[in-house]
Amino acid sequence: MDTKHINKIADELGLSRDQIMVTVELIEGGSTVPFIARYRKEATGSLDEVAITTIRDRLGQLQDLDRRRESILKSLMERQLLTDELKEKISTAESLTTLEDIYLPFKPKRRTRATIAREKGLEPLAGMLFKQDEDMDPLVEAGSFVDQEKGVESAEDALAGARDIIAEWVNENQKAREKMRRLYGKKGFFRVKAISGKEQEGAKYRDYFDLEEPVTTAPSHRILAMRRGAKEGFLNLRVSPPEDEALELLEGLFVKGDNAASLQVKEAVHDSYRRLLSSAMETEMRLETKARADAEAIKVFAANLRELLLAPPLGQKNVLAIDPGIRTGCKVVCLDRQGKLLHTETIYLFKSEKERSHAVETLSKLCREYKIEAIAVGNGTGGRETESFIGKLDLPEDLCVVMVNESGASVYSASEAARKEFPDLDLTFRGAVSIGRRLMDPLAELVKIDPKSIGVGQYQHDVNQMALKKSLDDVVTSCVNAVGVEVNTASEQLLTYVSGIGPKLARNIITHRNDHGPLASREELKKVKGMGPKAFEQAAGFLRIRGGKNPLDASAVHPESYPVVEAMARDLGCSIVDLMENETLCQEIDLSAYVTEKVGMPTLKDIMKELAKPGRDPRKQFEIFGFTEGIEEIGDVRAGMRLPGVVTNVTAFGAFVDIGVHQDGLVHISQLANGFVKDPGQVVKVNQRVMVTVLDVDLERRRISLSMKDKADQVKKQDEKRAKPDKEKKPTQKRRKTGPTAFNNPFAEALKR
Questions:
Q1: How are beta strands 330-335 and 341-347 bridged, if at all?
Q2: Is 210 in the same domain as 259?
Q3: Which residues, in sequence order, are bridge partners of residue 236?
Q4: 285 shares its domain with 407
Q5: Where in the sequence is the domain holding 699, given as residue range(s)?
Q6: Nearest-5° angle of CA 620, CA 626, CA 627?
């Protein structure tokens, strides 16, 4: 453990050195972020997952810097270029950029104009010019370097070579690069033009055909869009500050007067900027702004994914799930309360009246036979029509019909996990199973799908894929461990994300469960192959065993704290079950009496919360949601309508809202609230129920513009905008027993791509 890293991270985060040291020790010892945050609060001073993740990531960055530092020192040493002064500079460099600037003059490089000039023996002339003595006559001095055998034909050739060397010195000067970097950062502009002849083919980028935008204010989604347009060959993208300011800055550093030698240096400085330094700085600024845009996009994606994974579960119900289909029919499956597949069927709703009548009989029969408590309908093509058809059936009043976000279900259907679970089942039926299970427990089902296929985020295929995967894996891991996992029913994919387990141990748990039956206690986990002391310590508190030998096994109380709970029950003269069922008994406990060196007040308070609601699910309670009756297609939507909807995606430029017409509308960031909004994620979340006002409907491009501002404010603006206000009567809103749906529109598809 490097104490310099500990001190640096502590200073950066405003935390104590001890907090950082303990956290780093735990991480390096194999502890996971969820475990540290939940079960090591005394050690870390109750740091949360965000702080622990930040410490972990910053430590990784500093270690990467150290590895690069060692590589540079080794290279310089092998080439006998390492001096004590250079070693000191490299050893104290605090960023990768500074480190690379120091190394640049010594970095092995391809043959350059300056290299050729040095081979001609012109470096002494460059040195004389660079001193800029007033008495120096450049042409006279250059004349002594003329050597036709070396390729120096004239004094002008010698001066040109010397200027090439000076240009390289300017380009490699650490101070010049630092100042130029700041100039690009403060006054740089993205300058975008359409590539001639590609305007029509690249029409989707027409907003960027003639654009100048400051680097400091360009939002992440526009940076990524500009870069994508350039990559696809439709846009010419450059990044630069005003050239006169850049040249003035460099002249101030290197040009000492206005004598003949200074004019030679000035010419070299201009050449250095235009030929070398500007392209180097542009590349750096492209990378820096890309990293910034990536970070913002990944942050948005991660926040959306968290909301989606923690969506309220319906719970254990007998579910009939339908994957709608117009030509090939609707695939119907019946699932029991544990999500086990009981029956499959295909019905046809969009062909003949005879087949529709048969579908009515089939669905009614299945609902009775399998005691169906909820119907899940996928929100894809034909979803609203299917939901409308079911709504007219003579079904029990308490049987809810829920539209389910099916984004990613097709990915699961063709996955190895689906093939392994249902080797003989058609792909479409696998999709229906996923839809039904997603209603029962979104988290348990969505972990089977690559997060990038779930349908939230922006430009996810353009950002750094390693950083994206790491962030999304952190989110999934956090959500799974926050909710807890029933070890006897969990899938292999779900178990994989439990703290300390991973894919191999997850498979071993499934194998042990299949060979020996359900585990009766957490203690039995130690019998699973590969479940060593460390893995057990990390995983046990997040695994639940309901109905087991020890009632605490169904809670988030870690086995290491069982003796504390047993002591509490013993002191009160009651059982552990009594403690878990009688809140009055818990109120009699003096927690200070149970504080030890290992168990402090934070852990004791967590234990008390868990005893009050053992195994509680942190997710919100499931609520029925209804779209507006009669609004089922984009053609039904009119400007001015006030409609209920569900937020399906939040981006840096606004939020997409499903209003039940197979086409999400966009609430631009300027329309999210009456006041200024900087971060849409602070106003709305994925799966949030909202009321929106329709601003505009573009049937040709299938785009719907929405607003969440006050209705009165919107009506006033619409009246001002339209010469002839739309006085068409708005449809009456009737709430149906339906649920949130996913988006399916060109905006969203573009984001996913």
A1: antiparallel
A2: yes
A3: 193
A4: no
A5: 634-752
A6: 130
Residues above pLDDT 90, as percent of the chain: 70
Residues 199 and 287 in one domain: yes
Q: Which of 301, 334, 351 is the last residue of a domain?
A: 301
In angstroms, the Cα distances linking 595 to 561, 562, 568 are: 12, 14, 12
Which residue do the tokens 């999709």 mark? 431
Q: Are residues 405 and 427 located together in one domain of the fold?
A: yes
Tens of pLDDT, residue by residue over 497-544, are 999 999 999 999 999 999 999 999 999 999 999 999 999 999 999 999
Q: Which residue, chain included where needed, has tokens 């058609």?
A: 426
Task: Based on the fold, state whether residues 144 and 293 are members of the same structural domain.
Answer: yes
> 388 and 272: one domain?
no
Q: How far apart are CA 364 and CA 393, in angstroms?
A: 8
Rounded distance between C-alpha atoms, residue 707 and residue 714, angstroms: 8
434 and 364 within one domain: yes
DSSP for 277-340 reads: IHHHHHHHHHHHHHHHHHHHHHHHHHHHHHHHHTPPP--S--EEEEE--SSS-EEEEEE-TT--
Q: Cβ contacts of residue 268 below 8 Å, gap of 6+?
A: 129, 162, 163, 164, 166, 167, 170
Using pLDDT thresholds of 50, 70 and 90, give the confidence band for residue 742. Answer: very low
Contact 164, 241 (CB under 8 A): no
Write the pLDDT tens digit of every residue in 644-702. Answer: 999 989 988 899 999 988 889 999 999 998 877 778 888 899 989 999 999 999 988 88
Which pLDDT does position 90 carry in this prediction? 95
Domain of residue 721, CATH code: 2.40.50.140
- CA distances (Å), 12 to each of 64, 66, 545, in order? 18, 18, 42
Which residue, of 392, 415, 440, is where some domain finishes?
A: 440
Where do we find the tokens 């994957």?
323
For residue 95, the domain's CATH number is 1.10.10.650
522, part of any domain: no
In terms of DSSP bridges, do strands 374-378 and 319-323 run parallel, antiparallel, or are they unpaired? Answer: parallel
Q: Which two tokens stand for residue 579?
A: 């403690």
